[in-house]
C-alpha cells in the first residue's frame, strides 16, 4: 500500500441513509451541501463524495438537475476531487442511479460491488416522531430491501461511465464484493489502481470488529497486491475507530455525515468539517500526514 505516509481523507457530506429527524445538522439544500463540502475540503478532505436531496423535505434526489444546483459552485471553490454517487438511494434502480455520473463525468464515482440486504429499520426505532412523512415508511421498508447491484448492473455502470475517464470508488461491504471486483479486473473491465472503499457496520454487510477490518485488508492484499489503494468507512459510532485502525495499517479513510451523525461519543456532528478535523488529528497524531487533492489524484491515477 504505497501511499508514502500520505492518507487520503474522503468526506461523504450528506448521503441517502440518514434522514432529517435523525440530526438537525444533515445538509439538505444546495447551499447547505455546498457549504458542507467546502468546509470539509478546507479541513483536509481531498475527495468529496456527493449525493443530492430534495431541499423541501430532505428526500434523496438522484436527478442530474438536483446535482447541478451545487456541483459547479463546489468545483469553482475547491481543488478537491469530486466523487458522485451511483448508489443514490438503495431503493432506486441502477438506470436512475447512474444518471448524474453519466452527465457530469466526474473524476470519481462510487460503484457498489454486490447486492445485499440493507437494514435501516433499526434506526427508526430510536425516534418517536418524524419531521417528514416519508422518513418512517422508508426506514421500515428497508426490512424487505435488497440493495441491487447485479453483475449486469455493475457492467451497466462501467459501460456508461468508462469513456468519461471516470474512475471508481469501489464500495465493498464484504469480502465477496472484493472477489466481484477481482472478477471485473480479470475481464479487464476495470483499471488498476483500484480505489477500494471497504464499508464496515452496515446492517447486511460485514461488522466493525478489528478482525473484520484485518480480514478485509488481508483478502484485498491477496487479491490485488499493489494494484489497489485501500480506504475504509465505519458506519455510525464506529467511524473514527475504524479509520484509526486502517490509517495505522497504511490505509486511507472516509468520514462524513452520510456515514455517521456523530462526532465522538453521544455528540452530534454539527458539521462534516468537524469529523474531518477529528480524523485528521488521529492521522497526524500517528505521525502520518493528510494527502492534498493533487497528491490524491497521483495516488489514485485520476484524470485530473
Ligand atoms: C455506506 C455508504 N452509503 C456507501 C455509499 O456511499 C454508496 C454510494 O453512494 O454509492
Ligand atoms: Zn454514498
TrEMBL record:
Keywords: Metal-binding, Transferase, Zinc
Pfam families the UniProt entry points to: BKACE (PF05853)
One Gene Ontology molecular-function label: metal ion binding
Cofactors demanded by this protein: Zn(2+)
InterPro entries, per the entry: Aldolase_TIM (IPR013785), BKACE (IPR008567)
PANTHER family listed in its UniProt record: 3-KETO-5-AMINOHEXANOATE CLEAVAGE ENZYME, 3-KETO-5-AMINOHEXANOATE CLEAVAGE ENZYME-RELATED
Protein name: 3-keto-5-aminohexanoate cleavage protein
Organism: Neorhizobium lilium
Amino acid at each position: 500500500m504505497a501511499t508514502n505516509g500520505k492518507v487520503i481523507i474522503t468526506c461523504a457530506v450528506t448521503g441517502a441513509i440518514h434522514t432529517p429527524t435523525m440530526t438537525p445538522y444533515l445538509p439538505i439544500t444546495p447551499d447547505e451541501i455546498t457549504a458542507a463540502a467546502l468546509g470539509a475540503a478546507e479541513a483536509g478532505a481531498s475527495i468529496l463524495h456527493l449525493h443530492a436531496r430534495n431541499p423541501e423535505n430532505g428526500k434523496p434526489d438522484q436527478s442530474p438537475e438536483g446535482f447541478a444546483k451545487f456541483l459547479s459552485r463546489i468545483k469553482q471553490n475547491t481543488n478537491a476531487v469530486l466523487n458522485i454517487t451511483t448508489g443514490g438511494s438503495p431503493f432506486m434502480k441502477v438506470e436512475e442511479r447512474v444518471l448524474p455520473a453519466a452527465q457530469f463525468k466526474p473524476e470519481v464515482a462510487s460503484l457498489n460491488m454486490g447486492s445485499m440486504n440493507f437494514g435501516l429499520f433499526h434506526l427508526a426505532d430510536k425516534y418517536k416522531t418524524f419531521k417528514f412523512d416519508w422518513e418512517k415508511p422508508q426506514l421500515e421498508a428497508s426490512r424487505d430491501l435488497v440493495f441491487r447491484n447485479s453483475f449486469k448492473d455493475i457492467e451497466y455502470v462501467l459501460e456508461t461511465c468508462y469513456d468519461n475517464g471516470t474512475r471508481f470508488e469501489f464500495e465493498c461491504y464484504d469480502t465477496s464484493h472484493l472477489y466481484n471486483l477481482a472478477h471485473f479486473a480479470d475481464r479487464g473491465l476495470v483499471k488498476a489502481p483500484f480505489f477500494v472503499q471497504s464499508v464496515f457496520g452496515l446492517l447486511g454487510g460485514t461488522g466493525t470488529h478489528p478482525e473484520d477490518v484485518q480480514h478485509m485488508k488481508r483478502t484485498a492484499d491477496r487479491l490485488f497486491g499493489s494494484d489497489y489503494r485501500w480506504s475504509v468507512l465505519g458506519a455510525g459510532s464506529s467511524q473514527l475507530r475504524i479509520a484509526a485502525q486502517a490509517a495505522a495499517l497504511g490505509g486511507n479513510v472516509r468520514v462524513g455525515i452520510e456515514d455517521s451523525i456523530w462526532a465522538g461519543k453521544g455528540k452530534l456532528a454539527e458539521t462534516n468539517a468537524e469529523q474531518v478535523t477529528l480524523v485528521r488529528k488521529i492521522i497526524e497524531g500517528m505521525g502520518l500526514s493528510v494527502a492534498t487533492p493533487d497528491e490524491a489524484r497521483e495516488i489514485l491515477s485520476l484524470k485530473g
